[in-house]
Amino acid sequence: MGGICAVMDAAESQRAVIMGVQDGGPSVMFGAATQPDRVAGLILTHSPARSRVDVDYPFGYDEATIAEQSKMVAEWDLDTMISRSFPSRGNDERFLQWGRRYMRGMASPTAMRAYTEEMGQIDVRDLLPSIRVPTLVLHRREFAWAPPELSRYVADHIAGARYVELPGGDADFFFDETAPMLDAITGFLAEIEPRTIQRRSAERMMATILFTDIVSSTERAQASGDAKWVVQLQLHDDMSRDLIGKHGGRLVKSTGDGVLALFDGPGRGLLAAGDMCSSLDRAGMPVRAGLHAGEIELRGRGCGRGRGSHRSAGDGRSRTGRGVGLQDSSRSRGRLRLSIRGSGLAPSQRCGRRVAAVRPSRALIIGRPDVRNLPVYKA
Questions:
Q1: How is the chain split among helix, strand and coil, in percent rounded to 5?
Q2: Cα–Cα distance between 244 and 324 in angstroms, integer?
Q3: Which H, E and C letters describe 330-367, residue by residue?
Q4: Mapping DSSP to helix (H, G, I), strand (E, B) and coil, where does residue 379 land?
Q5: Coil, strand or helix: which one is 377?
Q6: Is 113:103 a contact under the CB 8 Å cutoff?
Q7: Could you tell me which of 75, 90, 363 has the C-alpha nearest to residue 204?
């Protein structure tokens, strides 16, 4: 989503309708849940929330299907992969030649195998109820790589989402029977013109809240004296602001002996917390950090604190000594797995400190950032 926002910023577009196709779907779902002020609408094509079967999810690939796909990738059977993705062009030799060149230029067999295995681990089902933007879910009936049930599941779990099943079997909308898919997309866009988008006084989104406080701040203030303590607090605030910004966060406010910050995912929040603990410790101001990963409520510019945020603060502040505590409000930790993936953090060792998990909590309330009311960007 960061790359999409960079393009939008360059085009001076504050909000856009975002389209995710196949394995691009989970990232734009995450963006819609965590940055609703940038997403005016969501279009998902052949984009499952999870691709593999689970105890409560019988729609995905079973072990036999996964083995078949792995074998196809391992043998680098390009013609079969291209024909399955674009059956309408399977007998077009020129298209197959182009497809082979494209696949070879895109990735090596080893890289493709690693990518396929990585994508098979993604599970964003817990994100779906947090998506509250207009959503269109599209699926072609004969699409070979995923059954329609996977897309129906996504539509059923996003409030107000529209599911449209289309004829054909090609992966991308610009092949096969394009007219029905384009009609569905243009009709959807016409219904979410900027003048019909009404912002509510309160909005909910997925986010990670970071609380910190200086260890034994009262004793340190008494030992330092007022003048020296003010200088130390200013250094603490400046360093915290820089480190939070370095990891893509937003400093909401200083709490006097700590800070409150907002991140779009746990991975960035954990990295920022680890940096702050290490850097401020070296500066002689050791801190504790507590994080809450889950759904929050944005209300005005003020900062209310619901039960979840109080528990997040307590998770960090109740600790003796120093460290980082993490609270995840998702049932199956799917949101957390997606958000930490790629951050370099392993489940058993994040920021070099033990991470505590506590029971799920309710939504949080935190100040809403300023938002420019610009037109929807249709790409």
A1: 45, 20, 35
A2: 15
A3: CCCCHHHHHHHCCCCCECCEECCECCCCCCCCCCEEEC
A4: coil
A5: strand
A6: no
A7: 363
Q: What number of residues does the chain have?
A: 379
Nearest-angstrom CA–CA distance, 195 and 181? 25
Q: Computed over its alpha carbons, how large is the radius of gyration of the chain?
A: 23
Please name the amino acid found at residue 87: P
Greatest CA span in the chain, whole angstroms? Answer: 82
CA–CA gap between residue 169 and residue 99 (Å, rounded): 17
d(CA 81, CA 341): 27
Beta bridge partners of 210: 261, 291
User: For residue 299, what is the enclosing H or E element?
Assistant: strand 287-299
Kindly give, in sequence order, each residue whose CB lies less than 8 Å from that of residue 280, ignoring residues fewer than 6 positions away. 214, 236, 239, 240, 286, 287
Q: How far apart are CA 142 and CA 62, in angstroms?
A: 19
Nearest Cα to Cα of residue 338 among 8, 28, 17? 28
Q: What's the distance, CA 246 to chain centroid?
A: 18
DSSP 8-class letter at 375:
P
Please check whether residue 51 is in contact with residue 334, taking contact to mean a CB–CB distance below 8 angstroms: no
pTM of the model: 0.64
Q: Report the candidate in 164, 172, 205, 185 with the shortest Cα–Cα distance to residue 42.
A: 185
Residue pLDDT tens, the chain, 379 long: 777 888 888 888 888 889 998 888 888 898 888 888 888 899 999 989 998 888 888 888 888 888 888 888 888 888 888 888 888 888 888 888 988 898 888 888 888 888 888 888 888 888 888 888 899 999 998 888 888 999 999 999 998 899 999 988 888 877 878 888 889 998 898 887 655 454 443 466 777 888 888 888 888 888 888 888 888 888 888 889 899 988 888 888 888 888 888 887 777 888 888 888 888 888 888 888 888 877 776 655 444 444 444 444 444 444 445 555 555 544 434 444 444 444 455 444 333 333 333 233 322 323 322 323 323 323 3
In the three-class reduction of DSSP (H, G, I as helix; E, B as strand; rest coil), residue 19 is classed as strand
Token pair, residue 38, equals 């940038």
Tokens read off for 17: 């309708």
β 135-140/162-166 pair status: parallel
Contact status, residue 196 vs residue 295, Cβ threshold 8 Å: no
